[in-house]
Each structure stands twice: as structure tokens, then as C-alpha cells.
């Protein structure tokens, strides 16, 4: 397995993210898609930037409002555009994030049928470029619950639509992450690792509270409520010889981006027994 990290906590500061993550020993990343596509017409410049810090691109985020049939053509073209950039920079994974906001009552079977048709088309377009599309269930979107995930996995073509489990989003969506991962183990092509913030928190562990900011839903690996589950999940992935990316992702740092990624690095090395 290979370890990557997401630069989300650095916001628009791609250069700072590369510098600091490199200092911590990371060698692969996801970044915001719009930041990467700023270099769409300057591929060599982007590659030189990544090479300067010893990084490779593990994936970029794509997807869209798959249930909106009027957006079908745009979704297919947009994801193909992102896939071409990924491929040009040595990557072969695109994360298919579903659209939001979530509608009251969730997504109906008829809507999921539309979503599956669109996703199949977009994933096939990415596959033809040489990039695997990985469905990522996500809270507060059209694909959040076990019914929505299972329906999409049933209706989509396993040749083109792969699976990107996110430990925290599966849990917050009411699922048992390890159970879901076992059920779809043959379709896993990318993984997001994140922890869920505990209800009882203090300023010493989470400095964000000292500024009277609200605690984010997700937190650094090892500081949350599903740390042990993450250890079990990675243990299972080792058992089945999963050899793809494990990407550390924190939506919002509870201290500083550098410190957050350092905490995650220590968890990856000490608890998960993985090297960067």
C-alpha cells in the first residue's frame, strides 16, 4: 500500500502544502482540482513543481450531480477533462464525489438509476483515458446511506466504476466501514482515511477551541472515535493484498496544517505500520 495526503487544510496554498508535506516525508498527494487545473496548459511546469518536492499525484476529485440528467453531458466532459490532466501527470485515479446538497428523504431509486447511467458514462470516458473512476459516498450528498451506496454499486458497471471508501464518511453515513469494505473489496481502487471528532474535547488536544472556533466533524488520525476501526480496516486491506493508495485527508486542521499532517503521519507509521 502507498500513502498519500490531501492538501485540503492548506486551502489555496499549494506551494506551502508541497513544501511542508515534503518536510514531513510525504511523497504523494491529492490537491484541489481547480488548483491542479490552473496548470492544464502548463503541464511541464506542474510536473517540475511536483518533482522539485519529490511528489507524485495520487488522484484528483471529480464527480458531480449524477442525479441531474440535464447535467449528464457536462459531467461526462468535465470528468474526462480532469482524467486527462491526471493521466498526463502520471496518475490513474479519479474520485467520483456525488453532488449535494442532500434532499429531504434521501435519493429515490429512480434518481439513483439516473445517477448510475451518468456515472457509467463518465467512468467509461475516464477508463478510455487510462484513469479509474472511484465512487466516494459522502455525507450530505445524493449518495450517503447504505441503500444509496448498495444501489449504485449494483447498477453501475464494475468494469468502469470502482470504489473509494472513506472511513469517516461511511461511518457518519450510518454504515460499518469495515463491513462495507469487505463487501466491495474487489472494487476498491482508492481509499480515504479520516477520523471522526469525539464529543468530549479539550483545548490541549484540539487547539482550534482556544480561538472559540467550532470543532470540525472530522479530525486527525488517532485523535478521533474510529481510530481502532481504521487500524482494523488497514489490517484487512493488508490481508487482501490491496496495493493502491491510502490517502490521509483532514477537512479542517484543529491546530495547523503542518501539525495535523504530522499527527497523521505518526499514526500511519506507529499504528498502521506503514511507511510514507
TrEMBL record:
InterPro entries: IolE/XylAMocC-like, Xyl_isomerase-like_sf, Xyl_isomerase-like_TIM-brl
Family matches, as Gene3D superfamilies: Divalent-metal-dependent TIM barrel enzymes (3.20.20.150)
Domain of life per record: Bacteria
SUPFAM superfamilies: Xylose isomerase-like
Domain Xylose isomerase-like TIM barrel: from-to ranges: 18-253
Protein name: TIM barrel protein
Source organism of the structure: Gracilibacillus salitolerans
Amino acid at each position: 500500500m502507498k500513502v498519500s495526503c490531501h492538501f485540503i487544510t492548506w486551502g489555496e496554498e499549494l506551494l506551502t502544502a508541497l513544501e511542508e508535506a515534503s518536510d514531513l516525508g510525504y511523497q504523494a498527494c491529492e490537491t484541489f482540482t481547480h488548483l491542479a487545473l490552473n496548470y492544464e496548459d502548463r503541464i511541464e511546469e506542474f510536473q517540475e513543481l511536483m518533482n522539485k518536492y519529490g511528489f507524485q499525484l495520487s488522484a484528483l476529485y471529480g464527480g458531480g450531480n449524477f442525479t441531474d440528467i440535464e447535467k449528464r453531458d457536462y459531467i461526462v466532459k468535465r470528468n474526462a477533462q480532469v482524467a486527462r490532466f491526471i493521466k498526463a501527470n502520471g496518475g490513474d485515479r479519479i474520485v467520483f464525489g456525488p453532488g449535494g446538497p442532500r434532499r429531504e428523504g434521501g435519493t429515490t431509486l429512480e434518481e439513483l438509476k439516473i445517477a448510475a447511467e451518468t456515472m457509467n458514462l463518465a467512468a467509461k470516458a475516464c477508463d478510455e483515458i487510462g484513469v479509474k473512476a472511484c465512487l466516494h459516498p459522502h455525507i450530505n450528498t445524493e449518495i450517503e446511506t447504505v441503500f444509496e451506496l448498495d444501489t449504485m454499486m449494483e447498477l453501475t458497471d464494475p468494469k468502469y466504476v470502482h470504489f473509494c471508501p472513506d472511513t469517516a464518511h461511511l461511518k457518519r453515513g450510518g454504515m460499518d466501514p469495515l463491513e462495507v469494505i469487505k463487501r466491495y473489496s474487489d472494487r476498491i481502487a482508492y481509499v480515504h482515511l479520516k477520523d471522526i471528532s469525539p464529543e468530549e474535547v479539550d483545548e490541549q488536544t484540539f487547539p482550534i477551541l482556544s480561538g472559540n472556533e467550532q470543532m470540525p466533524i472530522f479530525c486527525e488520525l488517532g485523535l478521533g472515535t474510529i481510530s481502532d476501526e481504521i487500524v482494523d480496516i488497514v489490517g484487512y486491506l493488508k490481508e487482501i493484498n490491496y496495493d493502491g493508495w491510502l490517502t490521509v485527508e483532514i477537512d479542517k486542521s484543529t491546530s495547523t496544517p503542518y501539525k495535523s499532517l504530522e499527527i497523521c503521519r505518526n499514526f500511519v507509521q506507529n499504528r498502521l505500520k506503514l511507511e510514507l
